[in-house]
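can u do me a favor
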C-alpha cells in the first residue's frame, strides 16, 4: 500500500505501520483509504490473531494532513460529508475489529492520531510521547474522533482535552485511561502484551469485544442480563470453549497458543 507497510509474523501478529514519516504520519485521503482496507483485510484473515498499529519515524501520527484539510475547506458540502464519512468508516474498522488491536505510540499523537490510539483496544506509549486533541487550534472540532475519545477517557476529560487543545504527556494520558502503559522500552512492553493476548482464545476475544460494545455504564436491566446469559450459554458450547476446558484439565497448552519453537 502507498502509505502503509504491513507485516504478519508466524504467530499471527500483524503490524500495520503508517509510513509517511516526512509529515509525521499525518493522514490524507490515501492513508485513510489504506488503513480502512488494511483493517478490513486483516479482520477477514483467519491467520491473523491481533493487530499492532504503529507509525514510522519520530511520531505516531500528527493527525490530519493540513493540505488535506485545506482541500476539504474549499470543497462542497456534499464532498465534505463523503470525505468525513470515509474517515469515520476507517476508525470504525479499527474499533470494531474482532481481534485485539494495540497502538504503539512514540513522539506525537495529535488530533486524529489521538483518535487512532483511542480506537484501539490497548495503547502503549514512550515516556516522551505527547498527546493533544488539537482540532480547535485550527478552528474546527474533533467530531469524528470524538466518540472514541469520550469512550477512552470519559465525557468531562474529553471536553477538557478538546476545548483546551493542550498537549499532555504520556504519564497524564495513562492516568486518564488513554494509554495503558508507558514504557522506556516500548517494544519489550509490546511483546509482553502480545504474549498475554495470544494465551487467550481468539474467538473468545472476538466475543468479548462484541459483547462489551453493547454494554454501558448504568443500570443492569433485564435485557442486559438476558443478553449476557444468552451469550455465555452459546459460547460455552463452542469448539473453542471445549478445547479450553479440555486443555486446562489435561494441564496442556490450548491449541490456539503459538508454539514457542
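np, heres the sequence
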Amino acid at each position: 500500500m502507498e502509505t502503509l507497510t504491513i507485516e504478519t509474523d508466524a504467530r499471527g501478529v500483524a503490524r500495520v505501520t503508517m509510513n509517511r514519516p516526512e509529515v509525521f504520519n499525518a493522514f490524507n485521503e490515501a492513508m485513510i483509504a489504506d488503513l480502512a482496507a488494511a483493517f478490513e483485510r486483516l479482520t477477514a484473515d483467519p491467520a491473523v490473531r491481533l493487530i499492532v498499529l504503529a507509525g514510522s519515524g519520530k511520531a505516531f501520527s500528527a493527525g490530519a494532513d493540513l493540505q488535506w484539510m485545506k482541500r476539504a475547506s474549499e470543497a462542497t458540502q456534499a464532498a465534505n460529508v463523503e470525505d468525513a464519512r470515509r474517515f469515520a468508516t476507517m476508525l470504525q474498522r479499527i474499533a470494531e475489529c474482532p481481534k485485539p488491536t494495540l497502538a504503539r505510540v512514540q513522539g506525537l499523537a495529535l488530533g486524529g492520531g489521538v483518535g487512532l490510539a483511542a480506537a484501539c483496544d490497548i495503547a502503549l506509549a514512550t515516556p516522551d510521547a505527547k498527546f493533544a486533541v488539537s482540532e480547535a487550534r485550527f478552528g474546527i472540532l474533533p467530531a469524528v474522533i470524538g466518540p472514541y475519545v469520550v469512550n477512552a477517557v470519559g465525557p468531562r476529560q474529553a471536553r477538557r482535552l478538546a476545548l483546551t487543545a493542550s498537549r499532555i504527556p504520556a504519564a497524564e494520558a495513562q492516568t486518564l485511561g488513554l494509554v495503558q502503559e508507558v514504557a522506556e522500552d516500548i517494544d519489550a512492553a509490546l511483546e509482553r502484551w502480545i504474549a498475554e493476548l495470544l494465551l487467550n482464545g481468539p474467538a473468545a476475544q472476538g466475543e468479548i469485544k462484541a459483547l462489551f460494545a453493547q454494554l454501558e455504564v448504568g443500570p443492569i436491566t433485564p435485557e442486559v442480563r438476558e443478553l449476557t446469559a444468552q451469550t455465555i450459554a452459546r459460547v460455552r458450547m463452542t469448539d473453542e470453549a471445549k478445547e479450553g476446558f479440555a486443555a486446562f484439565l489435561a494441564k496442556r497448552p490450548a491449541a490456539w497458543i503459538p508454539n514457542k519453537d
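The chain has a mean pLDDT of 96. hope that helps!!
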